[in-house]
Amino acid sequence: MADVTRRIGLSLGADLCWPLCYEEIIKRLDLSIPLNGDTVRFDIERVQIEPFDLQRQGRYDVVMDRLTHWYTTSREWIKKAVLLDDTYVLNNPWSIQSMEKQTSYCAMMRLGLPVPHTMLVPPKEYEPSDDLDSTLERYAKLFDLGAVGDHIGYPMFMKPFDGGAWKGVSKLDAEEALREAYDKSGRLVMHVQKAVDPFDLFVRCVGVGPQLRCVSYDPAAALHDRYTMDTDFLDDDDRTLLEDMTLTINTFFGWDFNSCEALRQPTEAAEAERLAVAKQRGERPGAWAPTGDLPHLWRPIDYANGCPDSQVTSLHFHFPWLVLAKVRWSLFCAATQRKKPLNLNWQPFFDIVDENPDMPLRERLAAFGDIARERLAAEEFEAFCAEHLSHLDEVADEYFSGTHCKDAVHQKVSSLFPEHEIGTFTDLFWNRIQHWRENAADGSIAT
User: Fold this and answer.
1) What is the pLDDT of residues 300-312, one digit of tens each?
2) How far apart are CA 420 and CA 342, in angstroms?
């Protein structure tokens, strides 16, 4: 039996709180896992940004990356590590780079999900280039923005086709507001999307590998209150549907860590909107999967969120769950030397749609979910955690009650809040973590 060390690299940006918690919890776990005839231990390092030699052997078995979606140097290093060093990275870097909201909408429409009516419009302004003027003169048709608004219908949202973090998002109730938002959009390529109206629940479902957490979300609240602390707002049917939807999206795009935002709308209202759009176009209704007897639909609105928010200042009550989910999944991937698929293989999803066009939406999502759980080795993961991480909850409870965790919260708060608010918000987030501990201890939430 050999002693082997699996190295997990943390590729970080402005992150402060969760890496501190993650590193300390793994340290306290003090793992020596017997696996396949070896004793496996773990070493955690923070990845440095520096020149890298393409021929040099990489150090890491797993990388947890927080930079690929915006920082080019780290993204290209990650690609090299996957291709040449067989490193497992949570989110496929090629997919993160190319699969913006536009592609994600089209892909899930192809699978029959009830994505709201959406159009893409050319930008208001352009970056000058050699061939721009001749191209626009020959092929860019003048269009009536008011007619676009009438076609989509109000209220609507305008948002960048590749955006994130609510940047550049406007809710529009009339043509005047649409024209004003478009005039301010500059060189951004924008979507206009019909608002889901009415709706009675907004949920963000976060996935880390096969682990999922549904959170009631209030986008109108201050950032530190958007993730609500509600725990009993979904029945089992709604929860499993959202979990299947999120796993479908994540595995379709090769994302181990992503979040899906969806709004719950009465089926009658959703179907009326779909029929109205079809009548306006003089076409058949759009190709949603049959809704069957579902009393309401979950309308996915924003789900290309690879590497979503991980900070205690927004997650607070849910922060311990996310840290522990990252601990479990990264240790499993490193210990078992999980391989990162180098292609996305969409065909099995398409086969379900094409071979079963009359399959109701709920059954279709369950079939997609089965593919996703198999790709994420969900059963093997659960067995690994039961055998090798059975003491994690005890370690976590002690850690999240201690001074090391509170200092991590304080550091993050200090980096974002004015000095006179640091104490207030440190206490606020700390108390919400303690509320999570209380709920976890009495079994009212999953850890």
Assistant:
1) 999 988 889 999 9
2) 49
